[in-house]
Amino acid sequence: MTLVPELRGTLAPGFERVGDAFLANFAQHGEVGAACAVSLDGEPVVDVWAGQADVESGRAWDRDTIVIVFSCTKGVMAVAANQLIEQGRLDPDAPVAEYWPEFAANGKGSIPVAWVLSHRAGLAAIDDPNLTLDDVASWDPVIAAIAAQEPNWEPGTKHGYHARTYGWMTGELVRRITGLMPRAYVAQQIAGPLDLDFSIGVEQADDHRVATLYPAQFDDPEIEKLASEVLRDPSTMLGRVMGGPSALFAYDDMWNTRLMRGAQMPSSNGHGDARALSRMYAACLDEIDGVRLLAPETVARATEMRSSGTDCVIGQPLSFGLGFGLSPTFGPTVGPRAFGHSGAGGSIAFADPDRGLTFAYVMNQMRLSMSEPDPRGQGLIEAAYGAS
Is 71 tagged catalytic? Predict the structure, then answer.
């Protein structure tokens, strides 16, 4: 029998069904610990959490628990890039090499910023076999490897998910323009002004608040073996991208180490809570406590479809604007103008301007599915839309 934990937090009148769906994830889908936040027209209407941040110690998921959100981090970096575009400091049509001269090596001199942001740059995989995790965590070596990399395919001809390189390339553009590393930029320009509990990587002093990540589990060992082989096969583009660089990213539990928690990986290791992501997207739609992150015209430009259709890395349909994932990526319930980003294992965060709704769901039990939406997030989204 599955024990259903106590629901904690707040639900506005009429949004009780979101709480019901949230607890159903524990009863029906093996949830361990999670949080969900929803705002409507800038006002928080759902802010709930429950379960365990760490099973082994019995540590409860509390209001101040934070967790790795994987590629939801890309949405935060999309905000950063589009802020610089809005300020006229980053031109999406200009070559990346205009800001980062070393990037021009191996025929990449004409690749525009927009192709990096929309996963069309042809740089999804890094083929340098000598990179170590310490190199990845220290930034400069992996940036140099990307600058030296020959494109994986002819840039601009198709889109393929730049699972990790998106964050490094976007982060390096931010660094070249502002002089700030991604963590510092997000802290100063996004998280700080809105009092968001979110950072690119997490300092050791906050380790006690970080939820332990639990890798996806499989009932059938053969399916688990097959999934592992498919995602890490160096002979395929999918394997090179998801396992690389240097086949370093072979195991999900590596993300619980201090090295991976503390590194700045702007594609993958943002740490925060659902409240922060929902509030960030709300400030992209309207002014929140005196802060608006992106102007309406910036949002309109950022959410123009740049890539759509079957992704050549993932093999599934994906849609992107200037950094943001676009509908129908978020499932059938979400409106056609929604923008945001989902993350490996199930996390998801987005804004729907037509409904004035923002949504975020984060959790520490990963679920692996590349062909269908995670039922946990979809159940919550359907409940939120039903209530709004």
Answer: yes
